Amino acid sequence: MASSMRWRLQCGYAILLALVIVAFAFLLISQQRRHAMAMADLQWNQMIGRAATAFAWGGVDAIEWPMTAQPPQRPPRPPIDSMEPRTGEDPLRDPPAARRSEEMVRPGPPPSAGRGAPGRFGRPRDPYPQRLGEEAGPALRPGPGQPGPPWVWPADWLSRWMGWPSLQAMSLRVVDPDGMVLREEFQPSPGDAGAIRTRRVPLVHGCDLLLAIDMRPVERHWMISSLITLALATLFWVGCLAVGWWIAGQSIAPLERFHRTASLVSSQRLGERVDSRGLDRELSELASVLNAMLDRLDEAFAKQKQFTADASHELRTPLAVWMSQAELALSRPRSDTEYRAALETCLRSGGRMKRLIEDLLQLARGDQGREILEQQPADLQDLARQVVDSFSPLAQKHQVRLELAGSSVIALIDRDGMRQVLDNLLSNAIQYNRAGGSVTVASHLEGPWALWVVSDTGPGIAEEHLPHLFDRFYRADPSRSRQVGGSGLGLAICRQWVEAHGGSIEATSRVGEGTTMRVRIPRTGIDSTPG
Amino acid sequence: MRVLLVEDEPDLASTIAQALRESGYAVDVATDGQQALEKATLWEYDALVLDLMLPKLSGLEVLRRVRAERGTPVLILSARDTLADRVSGLDLGADDYLVKPFSLTELLARLRALIRRAAGQSQSVVMLESLGLEVDLAKRRIVRDGVIVPLTAREFALVAYLVLHRGKVVSRTELYDHLFDEEDDTLSNLLDVHVSHIRKKLGSETIVTHRGQGYSIDG
Asked: Quick check: B101 and A319 CB within 8 A?
């Protein structure tokens, strides 16, 4: 899982990075081309200058042949005050374009008026004002005060590292104003005509100089430098991919922690938690959510485990009575009275098991989702009267007075369920009462609620037991319930029924004075005037 | 042998108590942890049968406190059957653990084994060579020259106690404490009556009287 996510991250990153690097490499390569052309221009100008000087001083035969040019040197850094921007209109530096027209072997693009014109902040828009094949525009001339060739980083570095080729003149022709050829030289070369460029330059006495050079070394130089650039860009791309792979791995590593914890938890070790230290904010939030979920799961499992242990304990005890009683009775011949006593004991514990099993089944049914409540309007007071009547024999046995109070309250209830609730509450209230005490059952209206209040005059329940009173198998005093014979599930069943009705049940108690149980049932769908 | 039975379920307590009494034990019953602790520290029992889920004081707590004072053999009798419960019970010093529901026969056998081991006796049949007696603690009978000698439960209990503490002089108080439970209204000369009956049945040299100290069985 983790590796495919890493791959997906990595692929997206690689494509994006490749787009950026290709664009950047393209910029670099075009810059390198401009640089190469400007360098060629410089060397060309160097040769033209030498030829023009020789012609002016010594005539046409003084021009050297064959003619080569040295690679231009980087000019010393000019003083700061001479670095003011060059304006395109300086007549000293830029003689009229008409006098320096170029002749091309191939027709160039139409003259561009914008070339060399001052751009924003008075700087030339184009750092390479003169371009091969363009007739108009200021020429690049090496000389003192000139800004020189475009010593631009990184094209210049690369050029110098590779070594700039020395250029060679291919042909030379000097013509007088009448068009007579004064001198013509030619350097044989296997090159094709397309790589040869010619320039026409005015000399003294109205003569013109036509000088052609072979551009192939320049082209080759540019080609190699672009290849090197591409290779470097690819290397850079691969390096970035490696770093990206590492970063992707780092950011996915916390997920491994989640995975490890989750797999530990799934193998029954609910105590495991995700270590959220050193995680990013998003992941640490996820970790705390996951941990909270595990806590609740753990708690639920512990509760379930406790319940199972309690249930098995409660079932084993009567079974133990049963079995040991039978074994004892059978161990030797006994009198009829002894057999009778043994059978009575068995019957008693059998009855206890039956009650317990019924209660457990009842709870299990409720846990699975209470079967649809058969709700119908009923008078709570009426129901209470019926239950109280049925409990009068038990009350007499415990010498407890039963009282009915309150008024008639109609609510939408499941009669059987609510009867069971009151049964359990009343049997507790009577059996845990003192002799001569009383139990009061009252029905009330309280806002949107229908209320049953069952209060007794028993010994009361200590405060620390109250929150757990409705838990399964919870017993405030285990020894007493043994004598009474409760399963420890009665109040849990009460709560289940009441909550199925959308109501609530709560207990308040004062030690020594008695306990009060309040059952609230919502009166939805019933006319609020008591019937 | 005197045993303390701690069990809060009344039906179960009376059943086990009856079974123990029928096997010749003197039995005291405690129905909650507090009572159990008081009795167990007050009397010198031969064994304790202890339930774990008790009112007032849990069985494990009773066990821990009893262990701090006495080395009485303890058998835990509980409905809790998880491994953790059994391990914690045994680690706290219980000598045996029996899960409810149980067989009475097994409970009795385990109790016998506990008492025997606590007395440093490894076999349930003890041969008294010099007296020509064979005391079978499991079947609760004494064989003399291949013939079973009929003894009452009390008489056998007395002999069994002396046999388990063979070679030692057992005082009269100790015998009273271990042969009669708290509900017995014992007459001070009841012991002498039992001793004389046993001497009649097994021979006068069986039980040796140490004047002012007590009785012993040697051999």
From this structure: yes
Instruction: Spell out the domain ranges in chain B.
Output: 2-118, 125-216
The encoded tokens of residue A110 equal: 């139409």
CB pairs under 8 A between A and B: 77
Q: Does domain B2-118 have CATH number 1.10.443.10?
A: no
- The overall average pLDDT reported for chain B is 87
- Global pTM reads 0.59
Measured in degrees and rounded to the nearest 5, phi and psi for residue A525 equal 75, 15
- Is B15 close to A321, i.e. CB distance below 8 A? yes
CA distance A111 to A127: 17
CB A453 within 8 A of CB A403: no
CB A142 within 8 A of CB A72: yes
Strands (E), A346-460: 375-379, 401-406, 410-414, 438-446, 449-456
CB contact under 8 A, A321 and B9: yes
| Domain B125-216: CATH class, spelled out | mainly alpha
Full DSSP string of chain B:
-EEEEE-S-HHHHHHHHHHHHHTT-EEEEE-SHHHHHHHHHHS--SEEEE-SS-SSS-HHHHHHHHHHH----EEEEES---HHHHHHHHHTT-SEEEESS--HHHHHHHHHHHHHHHTT---SEEEETTTTEEEETTTTEEEETTEEEP--HHHHHHHHHHHHTTTS-B-HHHHHHHHS-TT----TTHHHHHHHHHHHHH-TTSSEEETTTEEE---
CA-nearest of A329, A321, A316, A328 to A347 is: A321
Residues of B in contact with A331 (CB under 8 A): 19, 22, 104
Please give, rounded to a whole number of angstroms, the shortest distance from the CA of A462 to a CA of chain B. Answer: 14
Asked whether the CA dihedral B191, B192, B196, B197 is positive or negative, the reply is negative
The model's confidence at residue A123, banded by pLDDT at 50, 70 and 90, is very low
Query: Which residues of chain B are within 8 Å of residue A349 when distances are taken between CB atoms?
Result: 11
Q: Is ipTM strictly over 0.85?
A: no
Element of type H or E holding A429: helix A415-431
Q: Which residue of B has its CA nearest to A476?
A: B55
CB–CB of A331 and B18 under 8 A? no
CA-derived radius of gyration, chain A: 53
Contact yes or no for B105 and A309 at CB 8 A: no
Contact between A519 and A452 under an 8 Å Cβ cutoff? The reply is yes
Per-residue pLDDT tens digits for B48-104: 999 988 888 888 999 999 999 888 999 999 888 888 889 999 998 899 999 988 999
Task: Report how far residue A509's alpha carbon sits from residue A13's, in angstroms, rounded to the nearest whole number.
Answer: 68
The Cα B158–Cα B178 span in angstroms is: 9
> B106 with B98: CB under 8 angstroms?
yes
Residue A478: in which H helix or E strand, if any? helix A478-484
Give me the residue label for tokens 């708290």.
Answer: B182
